[in-house]
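Exam review. A common question shows you a sequence with its structure tokens and asks you to describe the fold in words. Practice with the pair below. Do the first one on your own.
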Amino acid sequence: MDYLNEINNNNNNNNNNNNNNEIFSYEKLINGHKYNIKELLIHKLKLKKDFQVKTLEDIAFLQKKFVEGLPYNNFDLCHGIDEWGLDYIVKRLLIDGEGGICTTLNILMGMFLYEFNIPVRLIKAYKQSQFNIIPHFSCHISNVIQWPLNNKWYMVEVGIGFFGSLNPIELGNEIGVLSNAGNLSYYRCIENPDDSSYIYQEKKAGMENYLNLFQFSPSEITHGEIFDCHQRYLEITEKKLFSFLKFEKGYYYFHHDCLKIGFLDGKENTITITDQYQLKKIFYNIKKLFYDFLNYNQEFSIINLSDITELHYNFIKSTNIINYNNQNEIINNNNNNKFISNENAIKKVLIDKLPSNFSDLNIVFGLFLHENGFNIKLVKSFKNNNNNNNNKNYIHYSNILKWVDGKEYLLDSKIGLMFNCFNPMEITNNNNNNNNNNNNNNNFNNNNNNNNNNKLLHNRIRKINSNTFSYDEIINNKNNTFMTIYHFSNSRVKINNKIFSKL
């Protein structure tokens, strides 16, 4: 039995009161298990294998990477799962990446710091205090470290969600530290003159004074106090979902059925969430899911358009595309909202790996590019009345990518009479695109273009008016005549008169 489960079981069974009063020890926790926490966490957070903690800035960097990779949430508790043994922490956080509350997140962080030979101490907030702003803070568990280079004590917090600074905060220093989480707040831990405790405070952007969040003691926590904090947390929580997840340009914060998306420039968006599934899929890491789907290295970078061509080809090659007739039924279904959505496309293509229509594939590829910082929008093709033989086949959704040079390109998983060249097609260029990827220097040659009696396909994008373009194809034959396959709009898709959002 691991150390944490032993603490839990002893308290549940009211066994050994002396054990309940024993001081929690990271040394016992580290030495009594089978895991290499340092190696697992370095892999999970995608840190360099030789990552070292040499400065306080390294710890701040580690805190930021921690909350970007491991969300703060109560999803497990809301589904009746009450576990915090080490096996469960490793599986839920380091293997499944599902996130957790202060108990699991901060203990994992404490173990990691201990393995770098940093003196770390598990501490708790006061159970009763006039300085605790919300009931949840009365059962909060955190870490303080003694920095070896100056022997000063700092709070290192990764399990408090929206209220975390993601910086080591020096105990007793009244100069606030600007948040590294993107919420533009300052944080500090001031000494309480009445005793040897401290008060964790926040000053929001635009405020003159600090607000008290909770009072805590820097003393080491006992086995019984860990158990008590966790049990009181279970009693206080209302079984309503909450979550905090940091991303590179800001954060997601969900509470009271509202999702706040905050950005580093101070801008915010708030979305009402109607069900648990809708919330969970918002926290999908599209980039990770996409690279895992393709068996790509997570560090793969998109530098030029040829990188997008490679990804586009390998993505389509790895999927199971349903035929045009089924696709046409899905796209034209009266329940359009049910099918054309981020969550359905992600789940179907990247998670369940089911046969998918072209619109789902294009949505997923567009979401992936969006998460990589590219300017991408979903557009809709529509019938070309001059081509009665083929117009029923081409009612679907595509992507338009605006590249760094300002030019726009069409990206589509399947267009035309034959497999497309997978290259981004410039929508303002009327020149033919030779759809013959027989470049032996790359590993994503389009051999499908040798089908259909080895006819060589050429295609182009032609401007019809300010907002409408035509996708045309030509089969090499004696007349060399282009045929219009479908028209598409350059405007973002609207469903029920609302812009289809990539966020």
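Now try the second one, then compare your answer with the model answer below.
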Amino acid sequence: MQNLGYFDSEMDAARAYDCAAVKLLGLDTERNFPDVVISEKPESRGDKMRERKTSRFNFGVCWHISNSAWSVYLRNPQTKRQHRVGYYASEEAAARAYDYAAIKMHGPGYTERPAEVSEPPASLGDQMRERKTSRFNGVSWKKNRSVWHAYLKNPQTMRSQHIGFYDSEVDAALVYDCVAVEVHGPVWRKLTFPELITKPPESRGDELRRLKALR
């Protein structure tokens, strides 16, 4: 199996497969979009990063591929070691965080923009620490997947039963209610939306299985 790259959308990944399959096996090979003329392979995340390896800011900011975020670091002139400041969603926020940390370590003459850094922007870690869990029962944020996780805890064994992953926190809460009613009955005291229980929302796994069945 040859890795063709990582893509931001499912459609781009499918077109990239078609492009590689035609190059390797010819036009008669099975494709996702047989009626579409193959022109060029969509740009992968790796292609985008090779085009732009570093930040446009001069110091302390770089793109962290595995975390998909802007990383801020500050080098200690005494120890020559890098100090990690944090990860940020935007490049501008990362640059302001670097300026704030540099002023704090080296003094106000170290950066050219002291007026813009009265306080540091919240990093992605700060934002997650402020909100560790969902406001609904049976729902939590799955950091490594960037989705909402719905689960049901067994009151006898105290073990959590996995229900599914959802893009919406409300969808995860709704499907928790549906499963909780099936297991504990309609009078279960921890229901979030008891008046809305009809059919559970489709999870990411359900959606992928449905799309595969249509092919």
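Model answer, second protein: The beta strands are 61-64, 69-75, 82-88, 139-142, 147-153, 160-166. The longest strand covers residues 69-75. Full marks require stating both points clearly.
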